[in-house]
Amino acid sequence: MTTQEMKKAFEEAYGRKAEKIYFAPGRVNLIGEHVDYQGGSVFPCALSFGAWLLIAPNAERVLRFKSLNMPQSYEIPIDAIAPQPDRAWCNYSLGCMDIIARRHPEAKLQNGYDLLYYGNVPAGAGLSSSAAMEVVTARAFTEEMGVVIADDKKYRTELALIGQECEHVYAGVMCGIMDQFASAQGKKDHAIYLNCDTLEFEHVPVKLDGIKVVITNTHSPHHLDSGAYNDRVSQCKLAVEQISKVKPIKFLAELTEEDWREVESAITDPIAHKRARHVVGEVARTAAAVEALKRGEIAYFGELMTASHVSLRDDFEVTGPELDALAEAAWQVEGVLGSRMTGGGFGGCTVSLVRDEAIETFKSFVGAEYEKKTGLKADFYVAEIGDGVMRLE
Ligand code: GLA
Fold first, then answer.
1. pLDDT confidence of residue 123
2. 186 CA to centre of own chain
3. Distance between CA atoms of 237 and 251, rounded to whole angstroms?
4. Which domains are seen in the chain, by residue range?
5. Residue pLDDT, tens place only, 260-291
6. Residue 352 pairs with which residues in a beta bridge?
7. Taking the mean position of all CA atoms in its chain, how far away is CA 265?
8. What gap in Å lies between CA 130 and CA 117, rounded to an integer?
């Protein structure tokens, strides 16, 4: 859908013109999975698909929410911003407005707004459609509510923090910062090497001659409900508590693999032990992968991606039969350098590095194997790495 078509849809929905248009992307994480809420470093890229938001102020002191993807619309008075029941989609938007006001006492909604959202991140694919919606809303409404942060990098980091807090408070998912950060700070043809403890980051060029980043959708919706995800967050916290009895730490990511061997026996809970082993290994793999990419050693980068999947499957237990079927089929294809689940897991997508000449075989072989094992049809997208959130008009 073009922005012209979105503007037309806005006029049809509200009988007047949109005044501003914003865009924020979804993301794919190349490596560094389930480490962000434990102070680890991650390596995501913003995608060219994401969420658009069109807005115009109104004189009625109400917020009207419509979406070109979801049938429900909502109307909420500006003085009654609070979480809505039944997992209302407007919570991602309302939540950001609320969090902006909580984090910036000077910020205020002066009047009502008509809002129209459109998203083209495949739903439930684990490519951060909700983070895109949060970040696009945070971008628009920091501006509308009068938040001024002159330094662009700091401003974008603040947008990510608003989105993350919205996810905690309005969606009940105790997520890390990765998704919102990638959506806010993305850069075309670069991945973001982000330290999730300090929020320091570096844009690293993704120059892959003759190789593509291919995203494969299981079409098995990732059930990133608060349940399984928040369990992992708590299990890691338990590991931190138990390790701290012998070596005080704030986050698992502080441990090198050598430290790990010294302290692992302090974890008495076998599940927490496995979870922590994943985090420590993944942090080391991610650092090695970024170095490999910088040196142009893409084959090694791919091997680390595959090792990441194995650890997420065996120790973190967030893959499930669909993601495993995709990754295991991909590993068999000549010309695939590496393949792993990406995002929260339990469904969603894999990300693979595939040589140009192998892409067609990859699609047909992986597609057929996947269908044989699961009865589902997979979808393939060659990733276009795009920029972070922006105002378009
Ligand atoms: C989800 C969360 C992120 C991160 C990933 C796993 O996408 O929103 O914060 O924890 O899972 O790496």
1. 81
2. 12
3. 8
4. 3-205+386-391 (3.30.230.10), 211-382 (3.30.70.890)
5. 999 999 999 999 999 999 999 999 999 999 99
6. 214, 339
7. 33
8. 12
DSSP 181-214: HHHHH--TTEEEEEETTT--EEEEE---TTEEEE
Q: Rounded to an integer, what distance in angstroms lies between the CA atom of residue 382 and that of residue 387?
A: 16
Residues pairing with 382 in the sheet: 214
Which region, left, alpha or beta, applies to residue 66 given φ > 0 means left and ψ of -120 to 50 means alpha?
A: beta
Q: Counting Cβ atoms within 10 Å, is residue 213 exposed (0-12), middle (13-18) or buried (19+)?
A: buried
C-alpha closest to that of 31 among 217, 239, 292? 292
Residue 77 CA, ligand 1 centroid: distance in Å: 32
C-beta contacts of 84-89 below 8 A and 24+ residues apart: 89/65
- Distance (angstroms) between ligand 1 centre and the Cα of 287 equals 18
Instruction: Return left, alpha or beta for 128; rule: phi > 0 is left, psi -120 to 50 is alpha, else beta.
Output: left
pLDDT tens string 194-246: 999 999 999 999 999 999 999 999 998 665 556 899 999 999 999 999 999 99
Report which ligand 1 atom has the smallest distance to the Cα of 178.
9
DSSP per position, 75-100 = EEETT-----STT-TTHHHHHHHHHH
255 close to 197: Cβ distance less than 8 angstroms: no
For ligand 1, is residue 344 a contact (CB within 6 Å)?
A: yes
Helices (H), the chain: 3-14, 91-103, 129-144, 152-166, 178-185, 226-244, 257-263, 270-294, 298-314, 320-331, 359-374
Q: By alpha-carbon position, which residue is closest to atom 2 of ligand 1? A: 175
Ligand 1 pocket, residue 36 CB under 6 Å: yes
Q: What mean pLDDT comes out for the span 240-262?
A: 98
Among 178, 286, 317, 319, residue to substitute to test ligand 1 (most atoms within 8 Å of Cβ): 178
Which residues, including other chains, have CB under 8 Å from residue 287's CB and lie 6 or more apart? 41
Q: Give the CA distances from residue 297 to residues 206, 289, 311, in Å, rounded to whole numbers and listed in that order.
A: 12, 9, 22
